[in-house]
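Regression test attached.
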Amino acid sequence: MTAVLNATGATRLIWLLPVLPLAGFAVNVLFGQRLRALAGWIATLAVAAAFAIAVAALFELLSLPGEERTQILRGYEWFSSGDLRVAFDLRWDPLSATMALVVTGVSSLIHLYSIGYMEHDARRETFFSWLNLFVASMLVLVLAQNFVVMFLGWEGVGLCSYLLVGFWFNRRLLVVNPRGRLVDGEPDDTHEVWAPPAAKKAFLANRIGDVGFLLAMFLIFATTGSLDFDVVFGEAGALAAGTVTAIALLLFLACTGKSAQFPLYVWLPDAMAGPTPVSALIHAATMVTAGVFLVARTHTLFEASGTAQTVVVLVGAGTALLAAVIAIGQDDIKKILAFSTVSQLGYMFIGVGLGPIGYVAGMFHLVTHAFFKAQLFLGAGSVMHGNDEDTDIKHFGGLRRAMPITFWTTMAAWAAIIGVPLTAGFYSKDQVLAALFEHGGVGRLAWVAGVLTAGLTAFYMSRYVFLTFFGERRWPEGRHPHESPPSMTVPLIVLALLALVAGFSLSTFTGEGGRLQSFLEPVLGAPEEHESLAAAVGLSAVATGVAAAGAVVAWLLYIRPFDWLALRRRHATAWRALADGLYVNQVYEFFTVNMGGAFAAFLARNVDQRGIDGAVNGVAELVGNAARSGRRLQSGLVRSYALAVLGGAVLIVAFLVFRP
Amino acid sequence: MRVGPGAYLLLSAILFGIGVTGVLIRRNAIVVFMCVELMLNAVNLSFITFAKTNGSLDGQVLAFFVMVVAAAEVVVGLGILVAIFRKRSSTSVDDINLLKG
């Protein structure tokens, strides 16, 4: 099935995809300070060049027949030990091509946006170098042909995420405090946060997942003797059921860390302490989708284990619903979008967890989500840029006149995410839900959760746009909201257009025969049966109806003259639970900080002081006592030593003489 | 009357015993030294006796080695003794107890 490189032209150049951003990183690290304003343009150019190569290589891939579309570019050998050989082989197939195009395409736009957004930042060359390093790592992850190289990219993006979340490590940000008092327009419900703890939280949560990735790799190597994708997938069917379930679940643990699924999603909302382009690029469009990509890439392993697939679907559905509920209670615009991302990632996992029936739907939602969520984040960044870096939704209102481009582009992405017919989100979300319904069993249960999530999504996203752009102005005196510069608005426009057209241009209503479907099927496998058009229309009507209901409720609450702050005060307890993320963080705090601290104190007192220190001190005391009694032998009297020598000699002679 | 090897060995044993006793009971380092020499020569006597008895030259050769080593040892030992006497005005071996534990 694999055509070992006989490729010509652009496909032979795909090694440049990660190398170009890496070169941009190197240039900006070495000469960034001298380049000044040029730094951003160099970084953008590096990523845009990678995008151009990816497009050229895509067209080459399209010119080949379906079965030959898996091209492998042999790279130099990284290391080999015994039977294990790990090389920088790159895989260019429809799946990695889709991801590479999304990554380089969206990255190019976000790099361009960052030039305007980071214009006044003193360390912008550092920012761009890290952003380039991120793109390079992400492309290594996407193009890898074995687990080790993929893990290299996996860790690389984790590192860049950590660095970029903590980019403003010395800046105290004012954000909305969910536990603060609720007073109209008064700023006493904000509190200061600091980026370093958020960065550490992201790093630690990811580390837990990465342990799963490592253990899965060990298990794969122990049972198949190889880490190359083709070899491992070829032997997946022959593995014991328990082993393959363990491998799949460990890989999924890695996904819950990187892709912010329950129970490891808690780092993503905090990661909003990073600059907004970072939130758009890493924490919405690309890095967090790496988990979805991993499941799709290793789908052979997941297919071999029904348990793992069920876990993926249920965790995805649960996370989608939970995060959508929490998103309702957020006042920080970036937090709303963060929880929304967690929720949408849940949809993608539902898709790729279902098996052949949902792979394309999941990947399709990944692509469309990359467009509309990147737009939403960049739009939120534009709102912040024009409003003195304020993120509190209560301080906006009526911005549509002050920021028309941001407003219209955000409305396009809003339409896409809530699933207005003919927009991108409508196609992809409905296909995920339809696949769920078709799947039956737990799929039906998850379908209910998915439809509810669709309604909640429509509600909280409408709340976000209504409170930000509509109604009367609530911003403080002396603030002059203004539209952002062209380098920021151009990416907004492009992404908004993509959010509108990516649906019908890439797919059909049921997905069957759509461009993405026929493109990905050679890699991901075709579903055995397709739903009927009538069923699809019916399911779509339900989901769209629920979403419309959510939007209408939001309209009733936030557009009509209605005192929503009074409603909030009346149900203060419920509101606070929502605003505080249903106290999930507090549960974590209880288990890790309080109980972990108590456990550590117990260990310090008993095991450490009594056990370990006791053993060490005991040995020392034993030796000391033995030495104290032994030192008497050393009298210092030469004659007593002579006597001892004599005694010894007599004993030896006696032994030699009298031995039997 | 022919004196047998037993008499020589007995003399050797008596001389060795005197030497050991001297080393153990005397405090004067020079006397201890002389007693050590006595022990060495008692052993030499045994070597030669056995050599004569067995008709082998090995024992006689070994006796020469012992004498050579003893001479060398006396040189070094007396050198040390002189150094200690200059420092402490004493040659009692009981006074030299720097290694007392």
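Expected vs. actual: identical. Chain A has 25 helices and seven strands.
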